[in-house]
Structures are given as C-alpha cells and as structure tokens.
Request: fold
Amino acid sequence: MESLFIGLGIALLAFLVWRLRASSTERPVEKKPFVLPPNVILRPEPLLTDTDLLLYNLIRLAVEDHYLVFARVSLWSVVSVEAERTARSQVLKQIALKQLDFVLVHPGTKTAEQVVLLAEDSSPQPHEVTRTREIQSVLQAAGITLTTLNPHTSYTVPQLARLFGVSDEE
Reply:
C-alpha cells in the first residue's frame, strides 16, 4: 500500500514538473506591426452621398437641442453585449459588420436613443431585408428606437422633429 502512495506521489510530482516546464517554454506571441504592402494604394472615400448629407443636415437641425447626430456608425458600438463568452462572441460576430445610417445620441447619457435607417429600394434584396430585421431586433432588445426614412422623400425640419419626438408642439 505504501508503494502505491509513493508511486502516486512520484507521478504527481512528475506531472507538476512537466506542467511547469511546458508553461515556462511558452512565450507570448509577438505581434508584428501592420505594414501596408507597397503595391496597395489608399484614398479617402466619401462618407456620405449628397442625399445622405442633405438628410443628415435636416436631422441635425431638427434635433439640435436634444441629440448629437452621428453618421455611419457600426451597430456593435451602440449596444453593450453582456453574456457568457461563447454567446457574446456569437452575437458580436453577427452584428459586427452591420452599419447604421444615423444615430441620435443623448448628450447627457452619451448613449444612442434613436437610430435612423434609410429605406432601401422599393424591392429590397433578401439579404437587405434580413439585415434590417437583425438590426431591428438588436435595437429593440436594447431599447433603442428605430426610424426608417426614405432617402428620396423631401422632409422638412418640423416633420423630422415630430418624427423624432422633439418638436415644440409636444
């Protein structure tokens, strides 16, 4: 019986030595700095189209005393995903490349309170419908109001103020 305990002790000691030696040989992976390949050319890209810029300015005028207005914001930057590691990763992967057209941010809380999406053409592609539904479900779960505007409709500042619930009439 004694030899069994001695054998287990030696095995445990050997295992601990092996683990210590294995962990000491593991070095942190060195990240190489990003270097742009020589044959790549980068140029500035317009953030907004002329139509988008017109709507941005109208929205900004309509909500100027109530919200900060941001354009082309990624969905994951307006929500906090709180979940266990695997579920959190899955949600972040799903929403990672989704972009919001305009975000209305409360200047006091610094959180997004309303999001504006520009409606796609009259017959959107199936992937665009899916994208909109996913954005809508994420925003609804986060308690953020979603408003969809048609970029080809002429809006007035008072109309937009009413749409966003900030008009003086309320």
The domain at 50-163 is CATH 3.40.1350 (Trna Endonuclease; Chain: A, domain 1). The mean pLDDT is 88. The CA atoms of residues 20 and 59 lie 61 Å apart.
